Amino acid sequence: MSRRGAVQRSPTFFVGAEKQKKDLDAFQRREQQLAEVYYKNKPLCFNACTYQRTHPVKANSGHRDADATLVSPMAVGVADGVSQIEEYGIDSSELPTELLRQCEELAFDQLLPRSRAIAPYHGPIPLVREAFCGTECLGSTTLVLALLDNSTRIHGKLHPMIAVISIGDCELVILRRLQGRSGPLELVFHTEMQRVDGHCQTPLQLARVDDRIDAAFDDNITVEVIERGSAVHCISAYEGDIVIVGSDGVFDNLYLDEVAAIANKVLPPSGASRPTQSSLLTNLSKRIVEAAHQKTKPTVGGFLPEAPIGRGGKMDDTSCVVAEIIEWTEAHQKLYAREEVYPKWSNFWHCQVGCDGDENELQEYDGEMTPPGFRKKGRRDEMFCSIS
């Protein structure tokens, strides 16, 4: 098979109202995975980094990158805009970006560890439903979102959980050192793609469109997709867990064991209990994206590599979030409690290009170590910047 064969794969298509509604119950998942191993009774959070890059062939053709990523202490996720929307004059990147902004704000209000939540948390489905209802942009997008819930208790003890909601063909995997700190990272959980009729160009999706695209479509259909068609999983969270979230550009090209192998190469066991350096998490997300793009190139013998979607994979927008589960410390609490300094965590999150802390802002902590993920203030739109 030639390399040209890999280039000619079809783009992602918008799925109309009738097809969206047909198989919602078949897509639905409601699962909970509990591991009752005792650990220190303490809240946890994400320390996350992200990298995204459109495949060079698509970028050279003027293709718009419609992926958006979210990294924050209590929520990480990827939303992949449907490219066919562009044919109707709609910016395919707007809805995924706006949706993740809404998810971020709701997660801040509902999940940030504090004495009293600003708003009650009722689970991932109500959160995503409210986030979508808070958006205004036209478009269509897939979504996978992980929320860190520190409210669960088992036998009276705090038991943090990762709540994952997936709609479409973005995926999430969780790796854990099951053999102790000196052991390798092993796969303990992964989501499954949701594709209408099994076609790789028609994922289940969240949409808001007008009569130009589908006269029968309204927001109630998307709310039904969230409530009935979403796959929801709740998994026990432990310090040191590695959460990898990617668009279909990652998981159509890489097998799960390949993702785990890359993670073990970049994050070898250290035996230490310290959080992983953010630079290593960024490097891992970049290595995963690069490995996905490598699948579209012929090997020395002229053959295209095997990929889950078929030989040669596909050339696509490719985004990856890598997060480590770490302890929510007193330093985190001090930082995020000061709403006049940090009204939302967009001021202190880790952007794709990597930022350094502002020394003036660090002085108030009197030399105390600042929490992982602390970064200087930045504009909210930097949250969703792309690296091309």
TrEMBL record:
Q: What is the lineage of its organism?
A: Eukaryota, Sar, Alveolata, Dinophyceae, Suessiales
User: What's the catalysed reaction?
Assistant: O-phospho-L-threonyl-[protein] + H2O = L-threonyl-[protein] + phosphate; O-phospho-L-seryl-[protein] + H2O = L-seryl-[protein] + phosphate
Name it.
Answer: Protein phosphatase
The answer to whether keyword Membrane applies is: no
Enumerate the GO terms in the molecular function aspect: metal ion binding; protein serine/threonine phosphatase activity
From which residue to which does the signal peptide run? none
Needed cofactors, names only, are: Mg(2+); Mn(2+)
Per UniProt, the keywords (alphabetical) are:
Hydrolase, Magnesium, Manganese, Metal-binding, Protein phosphatase
The protein's superkingdom reads Eukaryota
Q: What class of enzyme is it?
A: hydrolase
